[in-house]
Amino acid sequence: MSTLFDLVFYVTIPFWALMIFAPAWRFTRLIIGSPWIVGAPLVIWALITVPILGDLWSLVTSPSLAAITEAAADPAVLAALWAQIIAWDLFLGRWVYLDSRARGIHPLLMGPVLVGTIMLSPIVFPVYLAARELAGRASTADSAVTQADPISA
């Protein structure tokens, strides 16, 4: 179980590395453009989950803090949860990367955002959404000034 736990993160590293260290490389956009990049961690999730599917099914159909706390003592349950988190973070990071590229947000700003997404996506994702909103407003204001002022155009 420990090997699968470790492996699930290692199979995502190449994708994170492309988004963080080679964001403008044409193959990065091609590779990250596919939602199937989350396939490897999901396969590992399935390998972990199939033997404990009955236990997990009861947890998700009748969730309670006590039941989840008890189930967390099982390394397989924790490994499955970890694999799900890693797959979700990669999917979310993929979306952030693609969105930032479409909006023209500088890669030097996005590198720390993507690292933050790996570490603490529930905190960093709303920060990214707020930052892109502010950047969008500033961009709209700049283009409105440029269009209204023929001298600066």
UniProtKB/TrEMBL annotation:
The keyword Transmembrane applies. The keyword Transit peptide does not apply. InterPro entries: ABA4-like. Keywords: Membrane, Transmembrane, Transmembrane helix. Pfam families: ABA4-like. Signal peptide: none annotated. The chain crosses the membrane at residues 7-25, 37-57, 77-97, 109-131. This is ABA4-like family protein.
